Automatic annotation (TrEMBL):
Residues 36-208 form the Metallo-beta-lactamase domain. This is Glyoxylase, beta-lactamase superfamily II. InterPro entries: LACTB2_WH (IPR041516), Metallo-B-lactamas (IPR001279), RibonucZ/Hydroxyglut_hydro (IPR036866), Sec-metab_biosynth-thioest (IPR050662), WH-like_DNA-bd_sf (IPR036388).
Length: 290
């Protein structure tokens, strides 16, 4: 995880990433969003798509509309429905008449402690995109790539003309993704990483952090990191059975206390995956090897 850089940040400013891609940073920095959520505008002609419109903050919606200018928004596309990604979809659609397309709606009811953004219960897409389905405009084509794991409804969008992939929170430019049960699933997350590893995308644009210019190298490292975490868990359980909180001091030395719950949820996701694979079990809140 990278430290949040000092201000000023380019909040509300349209930055050109490549000929078909601009990004606008939302004013929602936090320990879980880095400097904020990045909304992407795809297209250089009379029509554009908006990816991950972000939080429903008027200043951010106005910044998106200013960046779009005289172009027509023909699609508002969401990678998933955490509240830092999709709430602006509805007001932006109301202002522009553009359809909301992309991931499926999802509402999670849980008493588990949450360390990530809550789910957006207002998200109501006009169309849910199937895996491999495309949205097209003047000079651009976006293909939906289903990547469940961070959330069960997470998808990425591939820009066919340039080889770019919009990765939402599945792969980020500043930190590994948090996988929080019961909706977040580590087994699915690993399969989705392996799916991206098999692709030949040239660059990733994530919702948080800088562009990823060596995507295969990063994804390979992320897969290795998760396998290392699995091995840590199995080693610690080999020493003694323990509840989930007891893993954190050993596995995340020096971690900011504000992030302990996030780490605990990540370890829980690993434990559930290992349990499904028959490698660990539990009695009440105590985990042990089998």
């Amino acid at each position: 995880m990278m430290a949040i850089p000092p201000k000023p940040w380019p909040t509300g400013i349209a930055e050109q990433c490549e000929p078909l891609v601009r990004r606008v940073l939302a004013p929602n920095p936090s320990p879980y969003t880095y400097t904020g959520t990045q909304t992407y505008i795809v297209g250089a002609g009379p029509d554009v798509a908006v990816i991950d419109p972000g939080p429903a903050e008027e200043a951010h919606i106005s910044a998106i509309l200013d960046a779009v200018g005289d172009a027509t928004i023909t699609a508002i596309m969401c990678t998933h429905t955490h509240r830092d990604h999709s709430p602006a979809a509805a007001p932006l659609a109301e202002k522009t008449g553009a359809p909301v397309v992309g991931c499926a709606p999802l509402v999670i009811e849980t008493d588990l402690p949450r360390s990530d953004e809550a789910f957006d219960q207002t998200y109501d897409p006009d169309r849910v995109m199937e895996d491999g389905e495309q949205m097209t405009g003047t000079g651009w084509t976006l293909t939906a790539i289903h990547t469940p794991g961070h959330t069960s409804n997470h998808i990425c969008f591939a820009l066919e003309e340039s080889g770019a992939l919009f990765t939402g929170d599945h792969v980020m430019g500043w930190s590994t993704s948090v996988v929080i049960p019961p909706d977040g699933d580590m087994g699915d997350y690993m399969k989705s990483l392996e799916r991206l590893q098999a692709r030949d995308d040239s660059i990733y644009y994530s919702a948080h952090g800088e562009p990823i210019t060596k995507p295969k190298q990063l994804v390979r490292g992320m897969i290795g990191h998760r396998r290392q975490r699995e091995n840590q868990i199995l080693r610690l359980l080999g020493e003694q059975a323990r509840p989930t909180p007891d893993f954190i001091p050993e596995m995340y030395k020096g971690l900011d206390p504000k992030l302990h719950k996030a780490a605990e949820m990540s370890v829980t996701a690993h434990l559930i995956d290992l349990e499904r694979r028959g490698l660990v079990g539990r009695s009440d809140d105590i985990w042990q090897t089998i």
